[in-house]
Amino acid sequence: MGALSVAFLFLLGLLVGSFLNVCIYRIPRRESLAWPASHCTSCHRALSWYENVPVVSWTLLRGRCRTCRSAISMVYPIVELITAVLFAGGYAIYGWTPLLAVRLLFTCAMIVLFVIDLQHRILPNVITLPGIVLGLALSAAFPPGWLAAAIGAIAGGGALYLIAEAYYRVRGVEGLGMGDVKMLAMIGAFLGWQLTIVTLMLASFSGSIIGVGLMASGRRGMQAALPFGTFLAVGALVAAVCGDSLLSWYLSFYS
Ligand SMILES: [Zn+2]
To answer: Which alpha helices (DSSP H) does 142-192 contain, by range?
Structure first.
């Protein structure tokens, strides 16, 4: 049963990951998700079913379109694989519970926001705003409960808004955008205020580590190019899984 469930969720993750790729490509370009069917983004030829099999097609085609030979980004199979691994891992953590479905939905949103922020430096409202509403609604029925979710959304968004404002006043450049504020509000709505604090700490910490690393390696210019939403996405996924243990470990120093 266990192995079968893991295999099933892995395959489901591959298929969902393939759909997430469509979202990642089309949402920033304001294209419809439903129409047209998958096509080569270079020569616009519609893909046959066997060119659309997650990971397998990309590997067999060696990352090139069959007709125009233009390169197909390696991001596609990577997104499919990561989604599949996270889906299978989700079963190991939550089992067949309603919370599994909630957390997988949240995971999908984080993957899409991660890649879009990395590629386009935006966190589209069409994901974050419905995400806040959906997170609050689902949290009313499932953990962390409506109160923790409401505080998480308001405090998470509010805190980041203040940080963004302060950064702008001090540095005179926009370090964080409103997209980051709405994304953290969405994370708060799904995970509750406690895990939102963990998310923000993990994102800031990993952001500084990588920022310092880039400066040390002489790529100072890259620092400004690191979008905070990508760190928030990773931070939120880590917090969702081991945030409670991290929090009690951290608080144990103060008791
Ligand atoms: Zn082509």
So the answer is: 146-171, 178-191
The alpha carbon of 111 and the centre of ligand 1 are apart by a number of angstroms equal to 26
- What pLDDT band is residue 26 in, cutting at 50, 70 and 90? very high
Q: What's the CA-to-centroid distance between 47 and ligand 1, angstroms?
A: 9
Helix (H) or strand (E) holding 9: helix 2-26
Residue 71, strand partner residues = 64
Residue with tokens 């616009």: 44
> What is the reported pTM?
0.94
Question: What pLDDT score does 224 carry?
Answer: 58
Integer Rg of the chain from CA: 19
Describe the crossing of helices 146-171 and 178-191 by its angle, rounded to 10 degrees: 160
Q: What is the pLDDT of residue 216?
A: 82
Is residue 175 within 8 A of residue 168, CB to CB? The reply is yes
Q: Is residue 65 within 8 Å of 40, Cβ to Cβ?
A: yes
CA of 49 relative to ligand 1 center, distance in Å: 15
What is the whole-number distance in angstroms between the Cα of residue 61 and the centre of ligand 1? 12
Looking at the DSSP bridge assignments, the partners of residue 64 are 71
What lies within 8 Å, CB to CB, of 33 at 6+ separation is: 22, 23, 26, 27
Mean pLDDT confidence for 193-204: 95
DSSP H or E run through 233: helix 228-251
Residue 225 has pLDDT above 80, yes or no: no
**Percentage with pLDDT > 70 across the chain:** 96
39: β partners: 46
